[in-house]
Amino acid sequence: MSGHRAADVAVIGAGLAGLTAARELTRSGHSVVVLEANERVGGRTVNVEVAPGVVADGGGQWVGPGQDHILALIDELGLATFDTHIHGRHVYLRDGRRKLFTGPIPPMSRAAFADFAQAQLRLERMARSVPVDRPWAAKRARRWDGTTFGRWIDVNTLTREARRLLTLCFTIVNGEDPHSTSLLLMLSRIASAGGIGHLIEVTGGAQETRVAGGTQLIALTIAERLGDRVVLGSPVTEVVRDGDGALVRSHRAEVRARHVIVAMAPADADRIRFTPELPVRRAALQRKWHNGTESKLFAVYDRPFWRDQGLSGMALTDLPVAGFVIDNSPPDGSLGILLTFVGTAGAGYGLTWSDEILDDPEARRAAFVADLTTIFGPRAAHPVDLLEKDWAHEPWISGCVAARAPGLTTQYTTALTDPVGRVHWASAETATRNEGYMDGAVSEGKRVAQRIAREL
Amino acid sequence: MSGHRAADVAVIGAGLAGLTAARELTRSGHSVVVLEANERVGGRTVNVEVAPGVVADGGGQWVGPGQDHILALIDELGLATFDTHIHGRHVYLRDGRRKLFTGPIPPMSRAAFADFAQAQLRLERMARSVPVDRPWAAKRARRWDGTTFGRWIDVNTLTREARRLLTLCFTIVNGEDPHSTSLLLMLSRIASAGGIGHLIEVTGGAQETRVAGGTQLIALTIAERLGDRVVLGSPVTEVVRDGDGALVRSHRAEVRARHVIVAMAPADADRIRFTPELPVRRAALQRKWHNGTESKLFAVYDRPFWRDQGLSGMALTDLPVAGFVIDNSPPDGSLGILLTFVGTAGAGYGLTWSDEILDDPEARRAAFVADLTTIFGPRAAHPVDLLEKDWAHEPWISGCVAARAPGLTTQYTTALTDPVGRVHWASAETATRNEGYMDGAVSEGKRVAQRIAREL
Description:
The structure is a homodimer of 456-residue chains.
Chain A: E1 3-12, H1 16-27, E2 32-35, E3 47-51, E4 54-57, H2 68-76, E5 81-83, E6 89-94, E7 97-101, H3 110-127, H4 141-145, H5 149-156, H6 160-174, H7 183-193, H8 196-200, E8 209-211, H9 216-226, E9 230-231, E10 236-242, E11 245-250, E12 253-262, H10 266-269, E13 273-275, H11 280-288, E14 295-301, E15 311-317, E16 324-327, E17 336-342, H12 355-359, H13 361-376, E18 385-389, H14 408-412, E19 423-425, H15 438-455
Parallel strand pairs in A: 1-2, 1-12, 2-9, 6-15, 10-13, 12-19
Antiparallel strand pairs in A: 3-4, 5-8, 6-7, 10-11, 11-12, 14-17, 14-18, 15-16, 16-17
């Protein structure tokens, strides 16, 4: 496992981008070593064991139409998918009033519905002027990158209800408060997805499909086939470049390689010392980058009891913790799992995650169960288990979802993707289509592998 | 130097905040160990040796009226100060036209002057409603924290000239493009400084005074008196908290302490593993924090020749590299040094630092000399030396100037300063007065030391 090795390509990071690149290169006959800091593969996909044989997705969870790269990979690996459970009526709870609904549109007031629709229409119209492969080239790029999506929502919605719903939806999608996210970046994602509906909807949208056995199974399956090409528990400390390639120093192995793929989010790449130093724009970009740090909370029940009541398990509410709830049960319904997202986002913007809920896991879990009981009735008061996957404290992964602060896109442009000599960058963040999604990570792993294969 | 130690207080970081705290605690009879990752003290103050006995300030450089903590410390340590050289006429160069002026206001067009004045007036009026110790409590805090200062400038100035000048001034002050800086944070700084003039002016402002021998001499003098209480080259990897205090593990020493002071910028604190984990809000804040990464470029001449021409050495221009130039010579004028700031900020916003200038040190230096020649004449074409202090590549300091992205202030509020048990936070960033300045670091070192002394 350890010691000195030589390979055509050293891959840093055994998430979906790194493993996809390693798989592609191996298939085309090149030698590869994958160095992973954690003691597991999968990066931001991780299976949380709920019961023997039952897993919940702790990180990246859904795939949907238009995500051709990840769907093809799942198929090639022989993994099974299933539809996200969305049958039945959803709960819309606001100001203490609980309404049931079907379809993608919650029963807002008429004014809020019109308001939501006009905001959506305007955002989609603005998004049409953003070239997804070069968002900084949009005519209004500087203007839109100089402000936040949250500020746009505040200024351009008229009703509290629509404003709150938009904020909630995109807090979940972005893994952070829209008041920290560049408006330009958001428009670029809307453009890439072909509209807001695709981003926030389940059926026909990016949340349509799940992977049987959990999404980490994708990485586990690839890694198993790569065998001892994957070195775990081996954080890379240094990459020394020269004319022939680079020497990659890690905890358990030193790899001499002709090309290097850094398959991590930009902020995580900053943990590596490069010799010679990275260009200023790349170095600064890594230091200014952050990802979203939201957590996932799971309430586990002996069965998905809400289905008996004709409920889907999906809910949109104004409750303290469970603002958005979705059925996260395994495909056979052998256990019932309800999922919500919780984090630092939204404080002060109408979402009401308090310091107590954020800082005290016990208080957070109690509040979650209380909310679920309000939504789904007394049966929800007695989960058999409560689990949490926290993305704010991972030692080697500084956040889960791809976020982006104002200014970054227009100031750093191609520094995100430009190779530095024979060092290449690939992660969900470098993708122009489905940026931040598992599909983006897979397409980037392929793109970089193909580029290197041409040069080897 | 190394091994196991016990102390009342372990201080992590030997910058101004950490050393001030260690000095205060030692003076009040408490035992202290200071653990510093670098092989030098000073943090973001560092002397760049220009010639034997001649230094330039590579980091924090100026002090001014209202910065009582740092001024008192300099005095107590017996260090000398001198006035920033500003005598003579300054150069204002725009669209190829070079004008000379005196006083703080460059000879803008009348329209630009009126425009600058109205923007300044409005910003100062807005700033008056921001409580500097709790900026998130301002009535319009959410609105202002949801957008950038750069966007405000773009919308609220009418002339290209005023817009560019405001952008340039605050790019220098903030160490990053205003399109990445929260408007609320900027208003809070304006409120703390008592106005924009104080922030950007030399005489009577925050750039009025320098330290003879360089600002790092402050840290060097304190550290010398602390003796072997300071352990260099000893990055802290872990802080394990318990009821009695904490065990602080570092490369060269393991310290058992009753209190811990983390005297680093929030982003740098994220390099340490805490057990038990930090509260979610604090952990997320650290991961979302970034500092400005601008560099300082120095052109060294055998003497300050511009003074012969009656020039101060200060210039405001629209040239590619030298947008702002100031005389940075030693107090005796034995050498002439001209300083500019260069970095990733400003790209695409009328400032024209190109990729080539940013990524190629040779091209950057050549462009700098070309600009200086345009400003100060042919004599400037032949510097005896060109030096650079780069803040984008420091291994243990992830940026120099305190910046702040939109959303951070209102979402994380007191997580920046709230102690976690017996772990306390002190740096230029935690200060409410003179945040981001050396004075803020010193006042925070004192504040935390006094608090701990009361508890010991």
